[in-house]
Amino acid sequence: MAEWPYSTAQWQRLRKVKLSASPLCEDCRPIGRMVQASHVDHVHAISDGGPPFPGLDGLRALCLSCHSAKTARGPEAGAIRSNKPRRGCDANGNPLDRGHPWADKSLRAGPVGAPGDHKIELVSKGNRNGA
User: Fold this and answer.
1) Which residues contact 82 (CB under 8 A, 6 or more apart)?
2) Within a domain: residue 67?
3) Which of 20, 30, 36, 46 has a Cα at 20 to 30 A from 124?
4) Rounded distance, CA 64 to CA 24, Å?
5) Model pTM?
6) Any domain includes 105
């Protein structure tokens, strides 16, 4: 395993560049929240063999809340890892947690029948016409 880079001058420079390039939390932005990023996170954890000094595309700018939630679910959580799904929806109403059963589904009214005889079902996003 690579040495932890967080106390090095190289990491501090890389962190500063990432926060300058992406000043808003990358997890909050899709749900319409404008929160200043304060943490820089590796896309691929160092403990999983990720590079300690990746390019900017190998890093994510996150707020404290999103970074804490991500860390609690990731391999770096150790024995106290959380399997709780991430709560909430994005601006389109899709669950934030990609593992949620509704993540790739869409609500659609069933075929038109007698008044009050409509049904609502979850369908795959690629299957919106009932085909």
Assistant:
1) 72, 73
2) yes
3) 30
4) 12
5) 0.59
6) no
Dump the DSSP string for 26-84: TTTGGGT---B--EEEESS-GGGT--SS--GGGEEEE-HHHHHHHHHHSGGGGGG---P
Identify the residue with better confidence: 127 or 41.
41
* 59, amino acid identity: L
Helix (H) or strand (E) holding 120: strand 120-124
CA distance 23 to 34: 10
In a domain, 117, yes or no: no
pLDDT of residue 2: 47
- How many structural domains comprise the chain? 1
52: containing domain: 9-80
Q: Does 45 fall in a domain?
A: yes
Decide which of 93 and 41 is more confident: 41
